[in-house]
Amino acid sequence: MNKTFTASNPATGESVGAEIAEWDQSQVLKAITSAHKVKDKLSKTNPSERASVLNSIADAIESEKDNLAKIANLETALPLPRLVGEVMRTVVQLRAFATLVKTGGHLLPIIDLADPNFLPVARPDLRKSQQPLGVVAVFAASNFPLAFSVAGGDTAAALAAGCPVVVKAHPSHPNTSQLVYEAVTKALESHGLPKDLFSIVQGVNPEITHWLAKAPEITAIGFTGSAVVGKLLLRLAQERATPIPVYAEMGSLNPVFITPTALGEKIDELAKAAMDSALLGSGQFCTKPGIIIIPNDSLGDKFIEQVKTYISQQKVAPLLNKGIADRFREAIKKLSISKGLEVISGISNSDGYGVTPNIFIANWSEVSQQSDLLEEHFGPTSVIIRAPFDQYLTVAKELEGQLTATIHAGKNEDLSELINQLSQIAGRVIWNGFPTAVSVTAAQNHGGQWPASSTHTTSVGIDAIYRFVRPVVYQNFPDHQLPPELQNSNPFKIERVVNSVRTDQSIQ
Amino acid sequence: MNKTFTASNPATGESVGAEIAEWDQSQVLKAITSAHKVKDKLSKTNPSERASVLNSIADAIESEKDNLAKIANLETALPLPRLVGEVMRTVVQLRAFATLVKTGGHLLPIIDLADPNFLPVARPDLRKSQQPLGVVAVFAASNFPLAFSVAGGDTAAALAAGCPVVVKAHPSHPNTSQLVYEAVTKALESHGLPKDLFSIVQGVNPEITHWLAKAPEITAIGFTGSAVVGKLLLRLAQERATPIPVYAEMGSLNPVFITPTALGEKIDELAKAAMDSALLGSGQFCTKPGIIIIPNDSLGDKFIEQVKTYISQQKVAPLLNKGIADRFREAIKKLSISKGLEVISGISNSDGYGVTPNIFIANWSEVSQQSDLLEEHFGPTSVIIRAPFDQYLTVAKELEGQLTATIHAGKNEDLSELINQLSQIAGRVIWNGFPTAVSVTAAQNHGGQWPASSTHTTSVGIDAIYRFVRPVVYQNFPDHQLPPELQNSNPFKIERVVNSVRTDQSIQ
């Protein structure tokens, strides 16, 4: 008989729900091969059918909104309103992909008709579109039990691309995961599609990661989590007989640079907003500002005084699981003995996986010697770094790749050098705002240079779909043997680029 | 003093040109850091300026057309008319990228304006475009001394993207490389741009590969060559402190499936055309048909008779260098002793690096047990595989990833299962044609599943540019601090997607 495990309520330590059976290797491999066998059932759906499937999944999840938020709240201790919002973000993501897929835009059809006069040699008829990769393995994150989990961004993007998905459910919220799984498969079946197109794997056994990454039928991996596991997946993927892409999002410091002028204009607002962003979701956001750079002048002193006052009153919800809480306490202990570091603590929360928010203050001259201070620490902490304004660019040049980088500046400040440097390392550069909260839109980019991400792609927003497709070109094919999106009659009535001109017309 | 090496004429074995100085480590690293220092000079050019630079490079190369073809002919023994054509393909590639870059299309600007009513939460102003990665290392191929070499497809794509390039010149054609280098840098300087934006590294020392792949300033690698070196580059890139993408094209069998009906309709034409494609450029094309699948019936017997007659009259030009010739002879020797294999030989060419064309014939039942027969062998050879027509799909399922896969079928044959299977493994599927000759167009895809390519991207055609850019999004930025392509006034007058609508208008 299989082993079992149980979810815990971080606020009380009590167990949540029934015992969950741990999947063994044969079950995991069967889920993968079963998905592979039926993959054409999804890949061959036409744009409006696939959009309709995505919308049905969204509807099925939305119909469980209150139930999902309630169970996720028990399993994560994240606040109920935030979880209701997260259900809606999950639903909105699926619908955004449905909107894209319905237009056929994701197929990117490009047609170059035969041209005997093309130079330097005659051109055959060439018709290219994007085709789904095949079965995708998604590793769910702990910190967004819905939007980055079972039916989160990676899953929505892969399904939208036409790929079956096997999700490694996060063991911190197995009951939430099961409920989402049921919603997704119910929606698939309502369209006459096999439920094998979608599975979740439950378990705490680290071998599951290896089984998924090594299975020959897996064609790509979507991952959000620690750098340790992200790098393991990259290694496993590269060692396969057929290496596959790993889209890993592995954490980020999300530096926030505050200029003296910005402090002069809005110091009260900034101190509070910076702390609110750092402590949001108990500091368990991938876009949490992990370092905040402020001037080492009297305005900087005043900023710190305000932070001290504010933090001393702050208490955060318990962390998501015992592992995160343990690692957080260990990191704080280690940081606390760093050279020349001042610690400001909030209110202790000793319930369940509770921790105390801790903000550190350091001078840049000391930080640059201690690499710990430039590492991500998951949980309610941030390092405030004091530097002369004329050294901000130097600080920026010392940083590794980031998901986001933020500048708070005065209205007429020109910071082109700093902006240029930050745009070299970060996927999103923010002006007079904070990095937490990520809109799901076409223009979004959630991904940054290594080690924030393993590739130059986004995991949020509709461009995420292009991670799970590959181009195939057909040369001189008889019309009826082409994929429909490339046929002369343009049966999907979608926009295509024909001889370099964008058109939704058929080809005569 | 540096070591030197000299090019050889494959047709005569005589040395070509002066001694070439071998680059040492400090010279290689200096080329890279110098390129890194000036990278903004290229990345900040506006679309029309950059297009103009690319056109000037094309013009400079075209003006040396006869000279280049003459020197390349001495260094490679490839026929002069083919080399003149290859100069023109190189020129056409550069001009195609210029045409794209001039429209600003490669910037893919997407703008989502702030929307307080956006659900589930208000949306900030988000503006995304594609930005160049930084210095790119390109490893030139031996078999296309112009179109896949110093200013070939990878270099043209990287420069078009706004990336400086350091090329590892192929030691088989150093004088051709030097001449192209001079044309490129002359063109850069004519636009007031520093020549450090472009360098070639000369040498036969295998350490050069390591120096280039490990240099921290290198942001991506473009490679065309053997699987051994491709896999080495992938490993080196992954072991860096900051891993980088490697776009490696590592060879392909390019299977050609000929149905009984096709043989019935055009057997004479097919036997000759298949052999012409296999022997083109002395069989040194990455799209050479390495296996040809024919029926094991009387039509198949007749096809083989025709191949025998034709091949016995064929002689090919010497191979590109001694290493290729030695490896070819070794492979043929090994293949010749394979079980149940028949060998048809052409006319021996013992001059310089000359070889004899060899075509093998085998039954599928024997092939499937001998993996050598399903490996690429660079040079004038191909394996004709005989199989019952109802096993063609089985053969297709045994194949690894391919650049191309070809079907010769009768006019009304429906082969959707075979087409579907081949489109899963190949980047280009060809109907009633041959894979050699690759058009440089928007719809082209030159890349296939592993091990043909290391990524799902193309190295030929204008989509190759997207390998060397990454998305960056700006959130709530003051208009004048945005990159020009994202500013309200749309100073480049380019097409952008604004709130999901494609437009070249400014934002009011």
Write the layout of secondary structure elements.
The structure is a homodimer of 508-residue chains.
Chain A: E1 4-8, E2 15-21, H1 25-37, H2 39-43, H3 47-62, H4 65-76, H5 80-103, E3 110-112, E4 126-132, E5 135-139, H6 153-161, E6 165-168, H7 174-190, E7 198-201, H8 207-214, E8 218-224, H9 227-239, E9 246-249, E10 256-258, H10 260-279, E11 291-295, H11 298-311, H12 322-336, E12 342-345, E13 358-363, H13 364-367, E14 381-387, H14 392-398, E15 402-408, H15 416-425, E16 426-431, E17 469-475, E18 496-498, E19 501-503
Helix pairs in contact in A: 1-8, 3-5, 3-7, 4-5, 4-7, 5-6, 10-11, 14-15
Q: If you had to describe this structure to a student in words, what would you say it looks like?
A:
The structure is a homodimer of 508-residue chains. By secondary structure, chain A is of the alpha/beta class. Chain A has helices at residues 25-37, 39-43, 47-62, 65-76, 80-103, 153-161, 174-190, 207-214, 227-239, 260-279, 298-311, 322-336, 364-367, 392-398, 416-425; strands at 4-8, 15-21, 110-112, 126-132, 135-139, 165-168, 198-201, 218-224, 246-249, 256-258, 291-295, 342-345, 358-363, 381-387, 402-408, 426-431, 469-475, 496-498, 501-503. In chain A, the strands form four sheets. A seven-stranded mixed sheet of chain A has the order 12-13-14-11-10-15-16, with helices on both faces. Chain A is globular, with a radius of gyration of 25 Å. Chains A and B meet through helix 5, strand 3, strand 4, helix 9 and helix 15 of A and helix 5, strand 3, strand 4, helix 9 and helix 15 of B.
